[in-house]
Amino acid sequence: MSANLLAKDYKSDVKPIWCPRCGDFGFLSALYKTFEELQIKPHETVVVSGIGCAGRTPAFIKTYGFHGAHGRLLPIAMGIKLANPALKVIGVTGDGDAFAIGMGHFPHAIRRNVDMLYVVLDNSVYGLTKGQSSPTTPIDHKTATNPFGLDETPLDPVAIAIAAGAGFVARIFAGNMKEMRQILPRAFEYKGFAFIHALSPCSTFYDTFDLYQKHTRSLPDDYRPDNRIKALEYGSSKEPIYTGIFINERRATMDEKYDALLASVERNDGIRELAIKWGQ
Ligand SMILES: Cc1ncc(C[n+]2csc(CCOP(=O)(O)OP(=O)(O)O)c2C)c(N)n1
Ligand code: SF4
Questions:
Q1: In this structure, which residue's CA is closest to atom 2 in ligand 2?
Q2: pLDDT at residue 277 tops 80
Q3: What is the 72 CA–ligand 1 centroid distance (Å)?
Q4: Which of 187, 172, 158, 203 is CA-nearest to residue 27?
Q5: What DSSP letter does each residue of 244-268 carry, written as one string?
Q6: CATH 3.40.50.970 applies to domain 20-249
C-alpha cells in the first residue's frame, strides 16, 4: 500500500454480496472514504462484527477483522481493546445481533466506556435469515414471524444509549452520504464508546428507503450535544426522525480507568478515592 491511502485501498478482495440497493452499501462507502480522510492505518485497526448481513462487513475491509459469534461483538471488541489498547476498534453489526441476542452487553460496554466505535446498521428486520422481526421492527409491521402484524413495542436504540450514559451518540441515514461524511470522522476521533445508530434499509425484506428519505431531518444548526434531556427529546422524536450527534461528552475510558487503578494500587490509595476522582 502507498503512503497516501485512497478509499479503494481499504477495499478487500472480497466483494460485498449484499442485495442491490441494500443500505449497507452506502454506509460501507462512507466508511472507506472516512478511512481515506483520516488516513486510518490498516495494521492498527480491527473491524469486529456479529452475525447477519451487516455482520459481513469486516470481510470487505482491508484491516484486521473479526467476524464473531451472534450477539457477541461487544465482549470480543472489549477483549481486543484490553489486549492491545493501541488498536482502533470498530464494531459493525445489525439490529437483531445488537439489540436482541446481544442487547445484554450494550449498557455494560457503555458503563465501562470501552474506547471503540460501535455502528449498528438498523434495517428493523433480520435480513440474513429472511426478514423476521427484530427489536426495532415497528408495531403492526407484518413479517415472516408475525404474519398478522407485530404486537411488541420497538426499542429506541438512541434513547437507550443516551439514558445508559454513552458519551457519544449519533444517528445517520445510509442514504445521506454528505451527513455520514460529517459524522463518521467525529465518531472516529471521539475518545471513548461512540455509538452510531445507522438507518440502513433492507431493500429485499423491508424497504424503508423512501420513508427515511422523507422523514429524516438533520438536527437544528443551534443544537448543542451537551444536554441529555434535550438529546432524549430529539433522539426519540419519530416525526421527524432526527439525524446528527445527540451527545458528545468526554469521560474516562475503560483503559484510562484501568491505568489509574493500577497506579492507585501501587500507591495503595484504594478505590474510593478513584471513584471521587472520576466523579462517579
Ligand atoms: C446463536 C445464533 N442464533 C441464531 C442465528 C441465526 N441468525 C443469523 S443472523 C441473525 C439475525 C440477523 O439480523 P440482524 O442482526 O438485524 O442483521 P441483518 O442480517 O439484518 O443485517 C440470526 C437470528 C445464529 N447465527 N446464531
Ligand atoms: S437481505 Fe436485506 S440486509 Fe441483507 S443484504 Fe439483502 S437488502 Fe441487505
A1: 202
A2: no
A3: 11
A4: 172
A5: EEEEE-----HHHHHHHHHHHHHHT
A6: yes
What are the CA-CA distances from residue 166 to residues 115, 152, 219 (Å)? 11, 26, 19
Give me 257's grid cell: 480507568
Ligand 2 geometric centre to CA of 97 (Å): 14
Q: Is the pTM of this model over 0.85?
A: yes
Q: Domain limits of the chain?
A: 20-249, 253-280
Q: Is the peptide bond before 201 cis (omega within 30 degrees of 0)?
A: no
Over the stretch 112-146, which tens digit does the pLDDT of each residue have?
Answer: 999 999 999 999 999 999 999 999 999 989 988 89
Which residue of 15, 18, 92 sits with most ligand 2 atoms within 8 Å of its CB, as the best mutation to test the pocket? 18
**Measured torsion, CA atoms of residues 79, 81, 84, 90, in degrees rounded to the nearest 10:** 120
- The number of residues making up the chain comes to 280
Task: Give the Cα separation of 134 and 51 in Å (integer).
Answer: 14
